[in-house]
Design goal:
- The complex is a heterodimer of chains A (268) and B (359).
- Chain A is mainly alpha-helical.
- Helix content of chain A is 78%, strand content 0%.
- Chain A has 15 helices and no strands.
- The mean pLDDT of chain A is 89.
- With 359 residues, chain B is an alpha+beta fold.
- In chain B, 25% of the residues lie in helices and 34% in strands.
- Chain B has 9 helices and 21 strands.
- In chain B, the strands form 4 sheets. In chain B, strands 7-8-9-3-10-11 form a 6-stranded mixed β-sheet, sandwiched between helices. Chain B has a 5-stranded antiparallel β-sheet with strand order 2-1-4-5-6, covered by helices on one side.
- In chain B, strand 5 and strand 6 form a beta hairpin.
- In chain B, helix 2 crosses helix 3, helix 3 packs across helix 4 and helix 4 packs parallel to helix 5.
- Chain B is elongated and about 80 Å long.
- The N terminus of chain B is likely disordered.
- Chains A and B meet through helix 9 and helix 10 of A and strand 7 and helix 2 of B.
Chain lengths: 268, 359
């Protein structure tokens, strides 16, 4: 291994190594700069600022709820995409994972078109029940779920595809119906994929900005989430912005470490 | 679909396809009877088992267990796998990797609505019966191949199914473990109240274990008989080779048989001319000579030695040419013959040594 690694390194032209070093520096520098600029000594004071505190709590709550929604509806969708055969399945899958590549602000506009007061679902919903979704806490959750669920779906779907269906046959011969096989064989064996999917979806939900500001607005104390607060505080109170950014960064690092088997060991 | 009185055991009349392969067999087994399904690899044994368990579609025919119709395509009857009450020990075991040995065995009991504690207590009892009480908490990944096989057997037996089917239960084991598991199987299969179907490609295993042996070749049952009968009068070259005798098919003329594979054999008893017969020659009855035998032997021809292998203190000589047979002679006899692989020798078989029966 060692020799091979050395050979590969020796085989690369110097220009490649230099360019790679530039890329690495570029990717690492903001993280380091953030750590350097974060006003650690004033952290306590800044975090007790009611606007910041509320944004933090709101973000945690909304992202957890979004992750719960993603699991509740995303796992069945993943099972369906992995197991069921139906016409147009490729198109259905593409539409389901579209939010992963969609500009979040477009997602937000789409959510308004669907659930806004004049939206195709929002208008009858308001007429029938008086409920309006946009610019509420529910809107934050929906925006986060919209961008996060596809991450869970693709991760869990990959897990379902790897599932050994011979075990399902064994369960059936032992008297287990489909529901019991799903509950006691399929889902327990999906735990690693499910955990990875939840971590990815939650992290994506926590960081959501574009769809949130479009669909839920940015009202301090009402619909302002942590990423929105960071953006706003950058003008008003840069120290707080740095601190909050570092907080979000720490969350990302924790998620990345938790998923190390998936992302950090590729090719090693 | 009410169970008819007296209609117990398994009756399977199976026509099914697996790829380009067609299976067309009838197999039955009464309560307490162990039936071995043997045949060469790819003969359709495992497909038969999967059809009976409900894991592979039946094209036509009927599967009935204890009077209950499980599968009858023409009558649109199909009982799903989980309602068939058939215990399966898979060739690849298929233990649940995330459950302990105990919970693997308890799985089928849980599926029948027994609560966790009672199911675990019964499962512990089953593990104890297969001699694995100490491994109850181990995950399948931590078990030896023999232990895993015991867990698979206990798991299939625990829910007390109406029928037990085992697919190659010894094939994945090393020789020492095999002996061990054979004893465990012997105990538990004979103690099992319902019919037992054991699929294997090792006829000796089948002959030792089973009350009856069904030989399947190319998707058809070629013989369904008691083990002794299979050993004495095999009806297929595959079974004959495995029990170690030469078997020929042919058409009888008065006191001779014209073999399908070419050549003829004279026999010392009368046959019904024109009927199809099977003829068996024990390898010990095949004599080898360097020069043309001068005696009265009516069956003699020249052949080339294709190969020689050791068989205990004897050697088995595989001969090509004339009627291709295997001769079994002593090592001393071979030395006296002074022949090696590739050499030509004279082969002689006394007509009185040829056993025949209708094909």
């Amino acid at each position: 291994m060692r020799n091979r690694a050395r050979n590969t390194e020796a085989a690369l032209p110097r220009s490649v190594v230099v360019l790679a070093a530039v890329a690495l520096t570029f990717l690492i520098l903001p993280t380091v700069a953030l750590a350097v600029r974060t006003p650690w000594r004033r952290a306590g004071v800044l975090l007790t600022d009611p606007v910041v505190g509320q944004a933090l709590v709101r973000s945690l709550l909304a992202s957890v709820l979004a992750a719960v929604l993603a699991v509740l509806f995303g796992v069945p969708l993943a099972l369906l995409l992995a197991r069921a055969a139906f016409p147009g399945k490729a198109v259905v899958r593409a539409l389901a994972v579209l939010p992963m590549v969609l500009p979040p602000v477009v997602g937000g506009v789409g959510l308004l078109a669907a659930f806004g007061r004049r939206g195709i679902v929002g208008r009858p919903l308001e007429a029938l029940t008086g409920i309006t979704v946009p610019f509420t806490t529910a809107a934050i959750v929906l925006a986060a779920a919209f961008v996060a669920m596809p991450f869970l779906v693709v991760t869990v779907e990959a897990g379902v595809r790897q599932h050994d269906r011979r075990l399902d046959e064994a369960a059936a011969t032992l008297g287990a119906d489909r529901a019991m096989t799903l509950r006691r064989v399929v889902l327990p064996l999906l735990t690693p994929s499910l955990a990875a999917g939840i971590a990815l979806a939650w992290a994506r939900a926590l960081g959501e900005f574009g769809a949130t500001i479009t669909f839920a607005g940015n009202m301090p104390g009402r619909t302002q989430t942590l990423p929105l607060a960071v953006y706003l505080e950058l003008d008003r109170n840069p120290e707080a912005a740095y601190l909050l950014s570092f907080l979000l960064l720490a969350v990302s690092i924790v998620v990345l470490v938790a998923l190390r088997d998936r992302f950090l060991r590729i090719g090693t | 679909m009410m169970p008819a009185a007296g209609d117990t055991g398994l009756h399977a009349d199976v026509r099914a396809r697996a790829g380009s392969f067609a299976l067309d067999v009838s197999v039955s087994a009464s309560a307490g009877e162990i039936v071995a399904v043997v045949g060469p690899n790819g003969a359709g044994k495992s497909t038969l088992l999967r059809v009976i368990a409900g894991l592979h579609p039946l094209d036509s025919g009927v599967i009935r267990l204890d009077g209950r119709v499980l599968d009858a395509p023409t009558d649109h009857v199909w009982v799903p796998v989980h309602e068939r009450d058939i215990g399966v020990v898979f060739a690849d075991l298929r233990l649940f990797p995330h459950l302990s040995a105990l919970d693997n065995v308890a799985f089928g009991l849980r599926a029948r609505g027994i609560d966790v504690r009672a199911a675990r207590a019964q499962a512990r009892d089953w593990l104890d019966r297969v001699g694995l009480a100490e491994a109850a908490d181990a995950r399948p990944g931590a078990l030896s191949s023999g232990q895993a096989q015991r867990v698979a057997l206990a798991r299939a037996l625990a829910p007390e199914p109406r029928l037990l089917v085992l697919d190659e239960p010894l094939s994945a084991l090393d020789v020492a473990t095999r002996r061990d598991i054979r004893r465990v199987l012997d105990d538990h299969l004979h103690a099992f109240a319902g019919p037992v179907l054991v699929v294997t490609h090792e006829p000796l295993e089948a002959i030792n274990l089973a009350d009856r042996v069904a030989v399947i070749e190319s998707g058809r049952v070629v013989q369904d008989a008691a083990p002794v009968e299979i050993a004495r009068r095999p009806r297929s070259p595959w079974a004959a080779r495995l029990v170690g005798i030469n078997l020929f098919r042919g058409v009888a003329s008065d006191e001779a048989i014209d073999l399908d594979a070419g050549g003829a054999l004279a026999v010392s008893h009368g046959l019904v001319p024109g009927t199809r017969v099977l003829a068996a020659v024990h390898p010990r009855a095949v004599a080898l000579h360097t020069a043309e035998p001068s005696g009265s032997t009516r069956n003699q021809w020249r052949a080339r030695i294709d190969s020689i292998d050791l068989h205990g203190s004897d050697v088995r000589v595989h001969l090509e040419g004339g009627v291709s047979v295997v001769a079994q002679i002593t090592a001393a006899g071979l030395a006296e013959l002074g022949a090696r692989e590739g050499d030509a020798v004279w082969v002689a078989v006394k007509a009185s040594e040829i056993d025949t029966w209708p094909a």
